[in-house]
Amino acid sequence: MGIPIMSSVSRMVEKKPEDDGLDLDGLMDEIDGEAVRIKTYIQGFDEQMSGGIPKGSIVLVAGTAGTMKSSVTFYMVYNNAKVKGLKGLYVSLEQNRTSLMRHMKGLGMDVSKIEDKVNIWDLGMIRSGLISGENWLNIFKKDLQEYKDKVGLDLLVLDSLPVLDLITQWKDTRTELFHLFEWIRELNVTTFLISEIPEGEKRYGPHDEDFLADGIILLRMVEADQNNVTRMIRCVKMRNTAHSPNYFTLLFEGKKFQVTKVIGQNV
Predict the structure, then answer these.
(1) Whose CA is closest to 78, among 112, 34, 27, 29?
(2) Do the bridges between strand 229-238 and strand 215-223 make them parallel or antiparallel, or are there none, so unpaired?
(3) What pLDDT score does 2 carry?
(4) How far apart are CA 192 and CA 196, in angstroms?
(5) pLDDT by residue (tens digit) across 29-51?
(6) At what angle do helices 161-168 and 134-151 cross, to 10 degrees?
(7) What is the pTM of this model?
(8) Could you tell me which residue, 206 or 8, shows the higher pLDDT?
(9) In this structure, which topology does domain 54-227 adopt according to CATH?
(10) 176-196 pLDDT tens trace
């Protein structure tokens, strides 16, 4: 059985960047020293991280339920594909492909417009969908490597780490995660790992993911008053990057994410 690649992806090699109206003058990412940057395209947030995320980083996107972790991460992939022509793969272990596409389209991200650059896998599309444990992960790695070799891959999203833990049934999760991170580094792909954390949890992952990751982007819900809740975002850490450690209010308006300074709230 072949690797799960959508038929539309085969058109990648037939298209030229200029055909998509790409920003050809901006194909080279922001450079800070020698670090090539991948932008988040969250208005006002890249400026707080020296222009973006260093290319090739493994970034943990952590937050409680309802903080739009998946939406924010897909937004990064979507806009890098649309503006820069980068190739992305979003692996959803929770939500099926159709549901995810419908949700993102509701936020103004029409996947059909970039389907030659961004693919979405769900459990039903992965060859190993009916297998669990170590065999699942080995087959998944093989599929992913074959996909990169055949299609090309710049950005990878794995949604989410807690579900991956359930599927793989790791006996020593910390050790297995270490090996997984090392394998991802060898892929040389900028990777976003989504992790849901319980309310009030001080750690950003239950198994030392925060120590293994190159960067951590944290999303939170904060009660502004008795009737209103505000979404917050901050860059907890980002290697090779001068960044602000502060929280910013995260807004979604006009089909775009943006941040503003937090005023008069204890976070």
Answers:
(1) 112
(2) antiparallel
(3) 45
(4) 13
(5) 444 445 799 999 999 999 999 99
(6) 130
(7) 0.86
(8) 206
(9) Rossmann fold (3.40.50)
(10) 999 999 999 999 999 999 999
> What are the domain boundaries of the chain?
54-227
Rounded Cα distance, 50 and 36, in Å: 11
Q: Which residues contact 190 (CB under 8 A, 6 or more apart)?
A: 38, 53, 55, 56, 57, 59, 154, 155, 156
Edge-to-edge strand list for the sheet holding 53-54? 31-32, 35-38, 53-54
Is the distance from CB of 163 to CB of 93 less than 8 angstroms?
A: yes
Alpha carbons within 13 angstroms on the beta-carbon side of residue 161 total: 29
User: What is the spatial distance between Cα 235 and Cα 15, in angstroms, rounded to a whole number?
Assistant: 36
Structure-token pair, residue 74: 């897909």
CA separation for the pair 262, 250 (Å, rounded) = 9
Of all helices (H) and strands (E), which one includes residue 143?
A: helix 134-151
Copy the structure tokens of residue 239: 């290697």
Q: Which helix (H) or strand (E) holds 261?
A: strand 256-261
For 129-168, b where at least 16 C-beta lie within 10 A, e where not — what string? beeeeeebbeebeebbeebbeebebbbbbbbbbebbbebb
Dist. CA 139–CA 127, nearest whole Å:
7
- pLDDT of 102 reads 96
Axis-axis angle for helices 97-106, 69-79 (nearest 10):
80
